[in-house]
Amino acid sequence: MRTDDLIKALDADARSTAMPLGSAWWIGAGAATLIAAAVFWLAIGPRTDIATAMYTTRFVAKFVFTMALAVSAFALSRALSTPGAATSRAAAWMVAAPLLVGVAVGLELLSVPAADWGRRLVGSNMVICLSFIPLIGIGPLAVFLAVLRYGAPTRPVLAGAVAGLLAGGLAATFYAAHCFDDSPLFVATWYTIAIAILAALGALGGRLFVRW
């Protein structure tokens, strides 16, 4: 057998046994969720009145926002990890979470006296929010960057930033179960800043570790 034929045969064998990228994303998502859950339960856990809070609209709305971000970012991250894959549809869905939050904030401003806006925006857990969303999300971000590296993103910085949004959405979903501040004004401000920290770290990770 000639050397070229041997190389082609080895390459074909490697491709046939390699895990499909789609499967790697689902396994990565599962691992990231387990990591986030472990950090959440070990570090802070759910709020003491969660059994009552889960019946309130504002509390449930937080999970709608964060899960919308996580799902849309997951779809876009998968698309960005594959060279030549269409990303426009997945990118369009990224407006879902900001749009939902914007609508909720608008309704909040209409229903709450202006004198209460500042108090609801600042809340009581600002520092905890800014600390624990990145803490819960850093492990999942590392997992998602590893999956991106397993793929072949042509825009690694953008892909890393979206992976950070994915990690942030996942982390914020867990953190929302602990947070006593249910106001959309609080969520729109402090959750966004905390998630943006992970997006910035993801962009840096994409630049340093995902390039190929």
TrEMBL record:
<feature type="transmembrane region" description="Helical">
    <location>
        <begin position="157"/>
        <end position="177"/>
    </location>
</feature>
<dbReference type="Pfam" id="PF06532">
    <property type="entry name" value="NrsF"/>
</dbReference>
<feature type="transmembrane region" description="Helical">
    <location>
        <begin position="189"/>
        <end position="210"/>
    </location>
</feature>
<feature type="transmembrane region" description="Helical">
    <location>
        <begin position="92"/>
        <end position="112"/>
    </location>
</feature>
<keyword id="KW-0812">Transmembrane</keyword>
<feature type="transmembrane region" description="Helical">
    <location>
        <begin position="24"/>
        <end position="44"/>
    </location>
</feature>
<keyword id="KW-0472">Membrane</keyword>
<protein>
    <recommendedName>
        <fullName>DUF1109 family protein</fullName>
    </recommendedName>
</protein>
<dbReference type="InterPro" id="IPR009495">
    <property type="entry name" value="NrsF"/>
</dbReference>
<feature type="transmembrane region" description="Helical">
    <location>
        <begin position="59"/>
        <end position="80"/>
    </location>
</feature>
<feature type="transmembrane region" description="Helical">
    <location>
        <begin position="124"/>
        <end position="148"/>
    </location>
</feature>
<keyword id="KW-1133">Transmembrane helix</keyword>
